[in-house]
Design goal:
Blueprint: E1 3-9, E2 16-22, E3 30-40, H1 43-48, E4 65-72, E5 84-87, H2 98-101, E6 125-129, E7 134-135, H3 142-145, H4 151-160, E8 169-173, H5 179-188, E9 192-197, H6 203-209, E10 213-216, H7 222-228, E11 232-237, H8 242-248, E12 252-260, H9 272-276, E13 281-284, H10 290-303, E14 309-313, H11 317-326, E15 332-336
C-alpha cells in the first residue's frame, strides 16, 4: 500500500513527530499534491496550541505549500497532473455564506485553512480543493514560492488595495517575515518606501531590499519622522506590536491609512480625535484568495521579489518551528519533505 510521511502533533502544545500514513486518494473536486516545500508560519503556532476553535488532533499543519499535482479527483477541470501549484492560507471556501455570495471569498465564514480545516503541508503529500490552487511561474523555485502563499500574498494584496499610488510615501513597520517582503513589494509598486524598525541593525538590509528611507523607531518619535518626510499615505503595520502600530499612527498624511497585518490581541491606543484629525483610518487585511496568490506569484516572478529563506528537512521540523518562534529565522523557515 503506498504511503506518505507527515509531521503531526498528537495533542495541543505537543511536539511534532514524523509518522507514516496511507497515501490518500483525492475526493470529488480535490487534488493530491506532492509537496516540494512548506513554509513555517507563525500562525501555525495558534493551531498547535489549539488557540483557534475546532482544531483537531493529531494535527498536520502548514498553509504555505508549493508542489506538483500528482492525482486528480473526479470533477476537477482546468488542472493537470504534473502542474506546479501553491496552496496558501486560503484553502477553499464554502460558497454559501453571505461573504461568498457577495464574491468576498477570503472573508468566507467557513474558510478552509490548510492545517485547520484539513491536513496541511508539513508532509510529503496533501489533499486540497481545486479551488485553492494557484499556479507557480517557472521563474520561482518551490522554496521561493512557498512563503508567498501567506506572507507574500498578505503584504502584496494589502499594498495593491491600499489606495496608494506610485510616488506616494508608504511606510513598512517591522522588517521581519512579513516586512522584508512588504518593503520589496512597496518599492517594486513604485512607492516612496520607508522602512521602520527598532535599532539600526536592519537599516542596511532594508535599503538593499529597496527602501528609500529608514527610521529607527527606538531613536525617537517614528510618527514625527514620517511627518518630516511629508506624511505616509499608508503605514503597512507588519510588526506584531500594538504599541508600535499606535506610535506610528500620527505619521499618516491626511486621509492616510494604517493597515494592520501583525496579528496580536492587544488593543491599539488610537483615540477618536486622532482618527478625525486628517480623516485618517485603521484597516485590517486578511490574506488573499487563490487568484490573489497567483497574482502575487506572477508579480514576484516578474519584478524579482523573493523571500529570504532558511531550509531544513522535514525530519527537523521541531528545530525549524523553534527557530521561527524565537524570531531568529531570517526570515522564513521552509521545510523540504523529500529531505526529511
Amino acid at each position: 500500500m503506498p504511503s506518505m510521511r507527515v509531521a503531526q502533533v498528537a495533542e495541543p502544545g505537543g511536539r511534532f513527530e514524523i509518522v507514516e500514513r496511507e497515501l490518500p486518494q483525492p475526493a470529488l473536486g480535490h487534488v493530491r499534491i506532492a509537496v516540494e516545500a512548506a513554509g513555517v508560519c507563525h500562525s501555525d503556532e495558534a493551531f498547535v496550541q489549539s488557540t483557534f476553535p475546532g482544531v483537531r488532533f493529531p494535527l498536520v499543519t502548514g498553509h504555505e505549500v508549493a508542489g506538483r499535482i500528482d492525482a486528480l479527483g473526479e470533477g476537477v477541470e482546468g488542472w493537470e497532473t504534473g502542474e506546479r501549484v501553491e496552496v496558501g492560507w486560503f484553502g477553499g471556501n464554502c460558497g454559501h455564506c453571505l461573504p461568498c455570495r457577495e464574491g468576498d471569498f477570503i472573508n468566507c465564514r467557513n474558510l478552509q485553512v490548510p492545517g485547520w480545516a484539513y491536513d496541511g503541508g508539513y508532509a510529503t503529500h496533501m489533499i486540497a480543493p481545486a479551488t485553492a490552487l494557484a499556479r507557480i511561474p517557472d521563474a520561482l523555485s518551490a522554496v521561493e514560492a512557498a512563503p508567498l502563499g501567506c506572507a507574500g500574498v498578505t503584504t502584496f494584496s494589502a499594498l495593491r488595495s491600499s489606495g496608494a499610488r506610485p510616488g506616494d510615501l508608504v511606510a513598512v513597520l517591522g522588517i521581519g517575515g512579513l516586512g522584508h517582503l512588504g518593503v520589496q513589494y512597496a518599492a517594486k509598486l513604485g512607492f516612496e518606501t520607508v522602512a521602520v524598525a527598532r535599532g539600526r541593525g536592519k537599516e542596511e538590509l532594508a535599503l538593499q531590499l529597496g527602501a528609500d528611507h529608514y527610521i529607527d523607531s527606538s531613536a525617537g518619535d517614528p510618527a514625527g519622522a514620517l511627518q518630516a518626510l511629508g506624511g505616509a499615505k499608508v503605514v503597512l503595520a507588519t510588526a506584531a506590536s500594538a504599541d508600535a502600530m499606535s506610535a506610528a499612527f500620527d505619521g499618516l498624511a491626511h486621509r492616510g491609512r494604517l493597515i494592520a497585518l501583525g496579528a496580536v490581541g492587544d488593543p491599539l491606543r488610537i483615540s477618536p480625535s486622532q482618527l478625525i484629525s486628517g480623516a485618517r483610518s485603521v484597516h485590517g487585511h486578511p490574506s488573499g484568495t487563490a487568484q490573489d496568490v497567483e497574482d502575487t506569484l506572477a508579480f514576484s516572478a516578474l519584478s524579482g521579489v523573493r523571500p529570504m529563506t532558511e531550509t531544513v528537512p522535514l525530519s527537523e521540523v521541531n528545530d525549524a518551528f523553534a527557530r521561527m518562534l524565537s524570531g531568529a529565522a531570517r526570515f522564513r523557515m521552509v521545510l523540504l519533505p523529500e529531505g526529511g
